[in-house]
Amino acid sequence: MIIDCHGHYTTAPEGHDLFRELQKARFRDPSKPRPDYPQISDEAIRASIEANQLRLIRERGADVTLFSPRASAMAHHEGDEALSQEWTRFCNDLIHRVTTLFPETFVGVCQLPQAPGVPIAHSIAELERCVLELGFVGCNLNPDPSGGHWAGPPLTDRSWYPFYEKMVELDVPAMVHVSGSCNHNFHATGAHYINADTTAFMQFIEGDLFADFPNLRFVIPHGGGAVPYHWGRYRGLADMMKKPRLREHVMRNVFFDTCVYHQPGIDLLFRVIDIENILFGSEMVGAVRGVDPETGQFFDDTKRYIDALPIPAEAKAKVFEGNARRVYPRLDARLASQGR
Amino acid sequence: MIIDCHGHYTTAPEGHDLFRELQKARFRDPSKPRPDYPQISDEAIRASIEANQLRLIRERGADVTLFSPRASAMAHHEGDEALSQEWTRFCNDLIHRVTTLFPETFVGVCQLPQAPGVPIAHSIAELERCVLELGFVGCNLNPDPSGGHWAGPPLTDRSWYPFYEKMVELDVPAMVHVSGSCNHNFHATGAHYINADTTAFMQFIEGDLFADFPNLRFVIPHGGGAVPYHWGRYRGLADMMKKPRLREHVMRNVFFDTCVYHQPGIDLLFRVIDIENILFGSEMVGAVRGVDPETGQFFDDTKRYIDALPIPAEAKAKVFEGNARRVYPRLDARLASQGR
To answer: Which residues from chain B sit within 8 angstroms of residue A194, using beta carbons?
Structure first.
């Protein structure tokens, strides 16, 4: 079985995004009418999925996708906490409808109602709702709800601990995933995403978070940002900081996906990172949608790069399936309940 | 000949750093006496270099190092413009003394007196002084003088143009190099440095800076941040943004050094980036000073990784010498004047 741990609903029916625009417009001008969330038919959802993700999944040969709301549209820096709570609930409910319409293919991962300066404990109720009521198996945690200003505390700060306690209790991992950038220095998918991945990993090195939470698990997307390319730097910095080796200090709890859009990058990832720490992901339909003129294939068809690796079938099976079932126990339980 | 394009004076005599502490203390409390810059003897400078950089250069087999003040101590976010101007001048003068004491080994690259919110034009006089009076061949340009808050404009903004005009007039490149971080999210050498490299490259993709300045040249250090690892992403994003191919759009003007501290990273760099765009660098004595337990060699002995590459001698000669002489014409002229 092939499980893609990183898919976003970037093709949601138009009314969903239109609601968001009206919602933000009313925040800026409260004299405007409160928008109603639109009626979106099952047919519209089906069509948006079948023409995009499902078509590509079938063409490329995956079976299951961990599916979450569009990351760039989480936009925790827009509006206030109430706006974020409302938007997040609609986004997660829409994902739930997708997972209900396509129960064999899509499994839910939730957005959180974060907002700058708001305690992360305020996101616990939505996590519980999504996991316990909607059957979701993980969440996307934004390490910078200020959208590129990095105005909050690092992920190792104790202010995050109430949320981590709930993650451990529910046995769900988080993907560390920022949203759009409102800092004009950072292009969202070309700088802010990758920087956030790198930043989170270095925060984990500097801290001792996993001594406090040995069962806490994070997936760092986009192949771990810059980390595998600079693996020597990170090993050396951990050594200079008198930390344990990365394998013990961080890599029992941190996993990288395979959203790296060319063969040399995937080759490097698999050369330096233990196979147990790599989860197949494509971020599809996502950041880079074109065809690589050097290969004639889609940049984000990351399965091809893994297929091309000269590694044993058992290793590929871990990356495609086994590791995801281990990191997301609720996914494993759901698949098992389907006899898979 | 082997030219290291990236060395910092991280081992300056104690009095230099002590002055900085007193200077900052007086900024915070102007009732304190104005500190005098200490008398530093030639012997103290010689000793600090011979025991460190020169010893390592000899052991590792390099010939010439482009030498600049300690990057993390530029700290443009500390104090105000006057403080930055004073500190920068002392730092560059100290580098000049090193280049005078060791004229065959060290060639100067200057720090700039940047400060948050201060026009970059205020850094032109120091660039001219260093290049025209002190014989320096390049500069370190900080894309984020706010020290991790990224409060200024991107490098493609027209506010930087007066400085770029002077760089072109003097025919000197800039290394894009941030300083320390005062944002607790970003570890300096583990996150802020690498993020800045990635961010600068993506800014160059988004903009059209090199259409305006076809002769402007930047070295992005630390192997280009995350860029080579995500080369497919950057090619794909440029394509989505309807930009020319990266080779034409950016890579006529942008070069990466080899400060990547393990063999797999260097292998990737050389696999995806054209040989004309890679300059040998070690950042030595710098960010990571230890010995890699996996190899028994120093992490930052980057020459070993290049020596181990199965590429022709002519390619290595470009990386070790030819590219640096092309990117830094004033270095080439200086070496030629020495009959080298």
So the answer is: 198, 226, 230, 233
pLDDT at B286: 82
Report, as an integer, the average pLDDT of B189-205: 98
Residue type, A229: Y
Assess whether the previous peptide bond of A285 is cis (omega < 30° from 0). yes
From A21, A104, A133, A283, the catalytic residue: A283
- The dihedrals phi and psi of A106, each to the nearest 5 degrees, come to -115, 135
Query: Mean pLDDT for chain A?
Result: 97
Percent of chain A with pLDDT over 70: 100
- Chain A residue nearest residue B195, CA to CA: A195
User: How far B236 CA sits from the closest chain A CA (Å)?
Assistant: 6
DSSP state of B244: P
Question: Residue A41 in contact with residue A14, Cβ under 8 Å?
Answer: no
**Dihedral, CA of residue B97, residue B99, residue B102 and residue B105, to nearest 10:** 160
User: What is the residue-wise DSSP string for A134-189?
Assistant: T---EEEE-S-TTSSS--S--TTSGGGHHHHHHHHHHT--EEE------STT--II
Substitution target from B181, B189, B198, B258 for chain A, most A beta carbons within 10 A: B198
pLDDT confidence band for A96 (50 / 70 / 90): very high
**Is the CB of B290 less than 8 angstroms away from the CB of A264?**
no
The closest of A248, A158, A170, A166 to A212, measured between CA atoms, is: A158
Q: What is the distance between the alpha carbons of residues B113 and B141, in angstroms, rounded to a whole number?
A: 10
- DSSP states along B174-212: EEE------STT--IIIIIHHHHHHHHHHHHHHS-HHHH
Q: What is the DSSP letter of B37?
A: P
Asked whether the whole model's pTM tops 0.90, one would answer yes
Chain A residues within 8 A of B203 when measuring between CB atoms = 185, 187, 191
Non-local CB neighbours of A71 within 8 Å, separated by 6+ positions: A8, A140, A177, A178, A179
Describe the strand order of the beta sheet including B106-110 as a list of residue ranges.
Answer: B3-9, B64-69, B106-110, B138-141, B174-176, B218-220, B254-257, B278-279
Q: Provide the pLDDT confidence category of residue A148 given band limits of 50, 70 and 90.
A: very high
| Cα–Cα distance, B303 to B260 (Å, whole number) | 10
| Bridge partner list, A110 | A139
CA separation for the pair A280, A323 (Å, rounded): 9
Contacts of B290 in chain A (CB under 8 A): 236, 239-240
| C-alpha distance from B160 to closest chain A C-alpha (Å) | 14
Report d(CA A239, CA B291) in Å as an integer: 9
Q: Say yes or no to pLDDT of A231 above 90.
A: yes
